[in-house]
Amino acid sequence: MKKLKRSSRLIDMTQYLIARPHTLVPLTYFADRYQSAKSSISEDLAIIKELFEDEDVGELNTLAGAAGGVKYIPKVSETRSLQMIEAVCRQLSQPERILPGGYLYMSDLLGMPSSLNEVGKIFASAFSGREFDCVMTVETKGIPLAYVVASYLNLPVVIVRRDNKVTEGSAVSINYVSGSSKRIQTMSLGRRALADGSSVLIIDDFMKAGGTIRGMMDLLQEFNAKVGGVGVLVEARDEQQEETLVEDYVSLAVLSKVDIKNRTVIVKPGNYFEKE
What we know:
This protein is an alpha/beta fold. The protein folds into two domains: about 5-75, Orthogonal Bundle (Arc Repressor Mutant, subunit A), CATH 1.10.10; about 95-275, Rossmann fold. Helix content is about 35%, strand content about 25%. The longest helix is centred in the N-terminal third of the chain and has 17 residues, at about 40-55. The chain is globular. InterPro entries: PRTase-like, PRTase_dom, Pur/Pyrimidine_PRTase, PuR_N, PurR_Bsub, WH-like_DNA-bd_sf, WH_DNA-bd_sf. Belongs to the purine/pyrimidine phosphoribosyltransferase family. PurR subfamily.
């Protein structure tokens, strides 16, 4: 790359870092890329770090030493996260979203890139302090959400299938009990999809009783893998509901009431925003 003016260098460096979250970039790489001294690069990174913090873009962590460098960690503050989720709750509280069985229509929300990016960044913030090898979800509407979260954490995505696909080779299949319908269902995962002993972040768009997530957790045991975290966009929670099959999870929104007769929906921010 030809030598750039400082303003152009700052823009290019910012774009480079944002496109590679959770990736350690050596200072020597930037020095060679822009044909500049390390001292100049360090000054540029200090400016970018301050900008990221002021604009609530995330953190820019610098590691000293010969093997050091700089790493961009996408994060959003709790205040801004709450504002984002309150907007999502207002959308989901629209009476016309009520579906048979007390479910909500969420496909439009999960299909909107701007909404998904905001939600994905909140999940990335919630789990930024943990180490994962991949993000896992089941083949439902939650797949786009899982990919957004994975992009912010710089992780691959593993998709659990409802049935085995020939294109994925030999697979492990288990039966599980759906938490809401109490029906026996099947899920499958290709043996090559997950390395032995992996740490997995499970992401799902909706959780009622937790049967599907519990099924994924049981499936992971067949791969000698561990659940490093569970994130749910919307959980259903009411006074009459039995306890969920999942205990430790992060929810961003709670569906607390669906009155089909009176066409009333109440959606509030989830346990991520609850103070201990």
